[in-house]
Amino acid sequence: MLSHLLKENINVIVSTGNVLNVSDLRKKAGQKPTDELTDCLRSTFAEAEFIESDDSNKPTLVTRKNNDLLEKVKEHNRTDIKIGAKIFLTHYSEAGLTEAVETLFETLNVSYLDNVILAYHPRAANSSGDGEMNGEVKEGVIEWAVGSDNAVGNLKKLWSTLEKYAKVCKIGQLGIADLDVESLETLYEGSTVHPSITQINLAACCVVPPQLQKYCGEQDIQLLTHSDPQDLLPHQVLSELELGAYRATWTTRYQVHIKCRGVLAAKGFIVGLSRN
Question: How far apart are the first and last CA of the chain?
Answer without folding.
Answer: 18
